[in-house]
Amino acid sequence: MGTSSFHQSLLISMAVLATMVGAAIGGNFYHDFDLTWGGQRAKIFGGGQLLSLSLDKTSGSGFQSKKEYLFGRIDMQLKLVAGNSAGTVTAYYLSSQGATHDEIDFEFLGNVSGDPYILHTNVFTQGKGNREQQFYLWFDPTKNFHTYSIIWKPQHITFLVDNTPIRVFNNAENRGVPFPKNQAMRLYSSLWNADDWATRGGLVKADWSKAPFTAYYRNFQSRSSGGAFASGDWQSNALDANSRRRLRWVQRNFMIYNYCTDLKRFPQGLPTECK
Question: Pick from 32, 81, 31: which is nearest to 61 by CA?
């Protein structure tokens, strides 16, 4: 390669990196997270402003937050695996540890090229989940970064995409439904092979000729109830009128599964919080 070609390639690479890093408004991945598995498949670069996870036939990869959180708001921008992502799952979630753990899940189920990702959400309390809602997205999550947020308050848990609420899980302890409120959680993310179930129930397998599969992360922010961000929008107790309209719009047009309407799954009656 000639000198001019080399310089041109270098400039293009730098421009691509600058675009992916964007305006750094969040934390620094070096300070906020530990790369926990997958070896060199998990990388932090751009001065700590950008993180990537990769999956190949040998292994996936993952990271976790250094801090634990008990209530607050978590925001992260993700750009998901592009192209044929069938068989892959990009998980992004809050979780405590142990057999009676609490957990708040975003999981992005890959698909063949041209088919939409499925956004899978779930809430675990004291080790018990089975509260799935699934959505298609109203954009291609592989083309650009989008913000995925969890607002966790004693009153309810809200899942948001680009600040649009897609799901609210209310505290129904007064009706005997456990609610995650006593166990601090870390933020985790992983990119892993789930081709035994992720795409069309496992009918479509990962195409390893397309590996490595890579997802990117930037602009992490946390606002903890016990920290410097104790005041803010996440503390308001209810969605405003516009947010309620957006929530109804998403659930009417993009929800593809709701455990609260699955009578076949719950022949003895729907879970208490659904009634």
Answer: 81
Any idea which residues carry the catalytic annotation? 103, 107
Structure tokens given for 194: 């789930």
Question: What mean pLDDT is predicted for residues 127-139?
Answer: 96
The pTM for the full model equals: 0.87
Strand partners, 185: 69
Read off the DSSP letter of residue 209.
Answer: G
Strands (E), the chain: 33-37, 42-45, 50-55, 61-65, 72-79, 88-95, 103-109, 118-124, 133-135, 146-152, 156-161, 164-170, 186-193, 213-224, 255-258
pLDDT confidence band for 235 (50 / 70 / 90): low
Taking each continuous run of H as one helix and of E as one strand, the counts in the chain are 3, 15
- Output phi, psi for 172, to 5 deg: -120, 35
Query: Model confidence over 146-197: pLDDT tens digits?
Result: 999 999 999 999 999 999 999 999 999 999 999 999 999 999 999 999 888 7
